[in-house]
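> Could you send the Outer membrane protein assembly factor BamD prediction when you get a chance?

Sure thing. Input:
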Amino acid sequence: MKVCDFKKFFLIIFVFFILFSLNSCGTISKISSGVVSQFSESFGKKKKKEEEPILAELLREAERNFAKGNYEKAYETYKEIRDKFPGSPQAVLAQLRMADAKFWEGEYLEAIALYEEFEKFYPNNEAIPYVIYQIGTCYYKMKRSYDRDQSYTEKAISAYQRLLQNFPESPYRAEAEKRIKELRELLAQHELYVAKFYYKIKYYRGAYQRILYIINTYPDTYASKEAQKLLLTYYQKALLETKDLTEGTKKDFWGDKVP
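Output:
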């Protein structure tokens, strides 16, 4: 064997030995892993850089539509941002703006669901006081007249009170307090309406109990002042009804004597 051929043969054997040694101790795996990691990071940065103009344009488009009152189009674009660019600051903003779009469109129940979803996923976000305020405002917008069901009124008060309790320094504090007072008056007026209805159908004990409830629960309302004027009359009627029920000359709604 020639000297040059021998050197080539020795070099091949040496390289094979080195590769075998590296592979047996996991070095090749580590090296390849590092290369892949660096490549992925580089590729990720490149992809992110390429997506930035697209993301910025989508956000501008959504904001333009929102400003023009095209809330449905704005919503769809915000949704696209949220779905296509998860984890980005723009996606977080888009999720909040989706709720805003539904709010301004008057779709309050859908807006509430989206606001609550945002609060669930981003409980420490700086926008949370605004989110809670908006939940209360959605319910506030759906409140009904005093002669109807007051479930939304109660939920609005609950949301505003949660805002005041958890974020006492919130810029929405003054408006929340103002609305709570207004909503409490509505609840009191509802109770007064029911009391007068009971009185009208001669269910005097029920009417009197409602009057007492108004005075004790909503003492700072106009309804309470009116209830105080009716208190003595309703009390006297309730006494007479109790007497009639006890003597059996009158039966309650279910045809029974007084408990």
